[in-house]
Amino acid sequence: MERTAWGEVYRHGKDLYTRNARPGERVYGEDLLTDHEVEYRHWDPWRSKLAALLLKAAPQPWFVSPRSLLYLGGAHGTTVSHLSDALPDASLYVVEKSPVSFAPLLALSRRRANLYPLLADAQLPERYRADVGEVDLLYQDVAQRTQAQIFAENAEACLRGGGRGILMLKVRSVTQRRSGPSVVAEARRTLEQRGWKVRATEDLTPFARDHIALMITG
User: Fold this and answer.
1) What is the C-alpha to C-alpha distance for residues 152 and 148, in angstroms, rounded to an integer?
2) Does residue 204 carry a pLDDT above 70?
3) Residue 151 and which of 106, 163, 189, 201 are 20 to 30 A apart at CA?
4) Residue extents of the structural domains in the chain
5) 68-72, strands of its sheet edge to edge
6) What is the pTM of this model?
7) Order of strands across the sheet that contains 32-35
């Protein structure tokens, strides 16, 4: 098991693992592996776009381990659970709009002390800004046409000076008609008009079709 440059994230062959914060527990049926009496959870890049990005692009400066993180679009908590493993000393604020998805996310947070779930709309950061405060990293994975605008508004509300962001741009949620590069270019313009810079992009093919990761700083 080889430790990567990002938190408690490890490689074993071609696969990623996180050190299991709750040995013996699976979150979504993932494989468990024990090495030198330490248990690890397989981080599936086909189910987690962040795992796909780490496999394709790490190590990179935007993966500097944060002390606090705002996650937009937590869903059922697949990626969130691995972030909880990987960043045990960080405070992870997780926004999810759907009550159906929020229920398992809330249950997960009861077993992991560094998770703070928020049943809220990512388009309205003013409603949770007081609960979140300023964070070091903003991570967004939401299926909305105005993804870049949502990121910018949350960054302005919650990202501290010098903070970093990762936007998982879902091209087909923006438009069904235009090409991926044109959607990325439009998102870049929207962010730069609001004072944010796209430092790098990464196509997540083959793990996630029509998904481009944008790495962003102020």
Assistant:
1) 6
2) yes
3) 106
4) 44-217
5) 115-119, 91-96, 68-72, 135-140, 159-170, 211-217, 197-203
6) 0.93
7) 2-3, 9-12, 15-19, 38-43, 32-35
